[in-house]
Amino acid sequence: MTKEELRKIYLEKRKALSHKQTMVETDLLLIQFQNLHLPSFENVLSYRAIASKQEIDMDIFESYLELTNPSTTFCYPVCDLQTCTLQAISTDSETAFSVNKWGIEEPQSNTILSPKDIDIVFVPFLAFDEKGFRVGYGKGFYDRFLSLCRPDVLKVGFSFFPPEKNISDVNDFDIPLHIGITPEKIYVFS
């Protein structure tokens, strides 16, 4: 299927999940995540979930990383919709967040972290396939950003649903995940 077809299907699939289902599935995702053997890391690019799109809440995964590696620095994207680019903004416990006009929480800080300094990226998406390619909202923010990161940056994605067999319209600019985590399984891509 094409990205556009999958985008429509998975937006509907997410909407169909009850609050209780998303809570149970998120707990199962955490159990899978706790089974990962992560390389040494300091800086993690995460994101704030868009509740209206039933995105997976990343707080539970961030809390786990803070517990296991207290020196972790989290950064969050601030997007420029004119250029379809994002910057990773470093945060601490004092950083305030505000909701932009698209309903996305962004940090109110001027501390930009270079893409080369990021060790792990939690990549949001709607669907992914058995090769690690993903379907986002169609603007390419993350592919552009990931192309600026070190080759060894670990790209991790979380999904309530198993991967599709194939995304038919993957292009040369699409950057696949290294790891896709579902409630039932961890998928590792080369």
Question: What features would you describe in this structure?
Answer:
The protein has 190 residues and is an alpha/beta fold. The chain has a single domain (3-188), classed as NagB/RpiA/CoA transferase-like (Rossmann fold, 3-Layer(aba) Sandwich). The protein is built from 4 helices and 12 strands.
Rg, rounded, reads: 16 Å
How many structural units, i.e. domains? 1
Overall shape:
globular
Tell me the total number of β-strands: 12
Reported CATH architecture? 3-Layer(aba) Sandwich
* CATH level-4 homologous superfamily: NagB/RpiA/CoA transferase-like
Give the fraction of residues assigned to helices.
Answer: 10-25%
Defining key terms:
globular; alpha/beta; 190 residues; Rossmann fold; single chain; 24% helix
Summarize the structure.
This protein has 190 residues and is α/β, with parallel strands linked by helices. The chain is built from four helices and twelve strands.
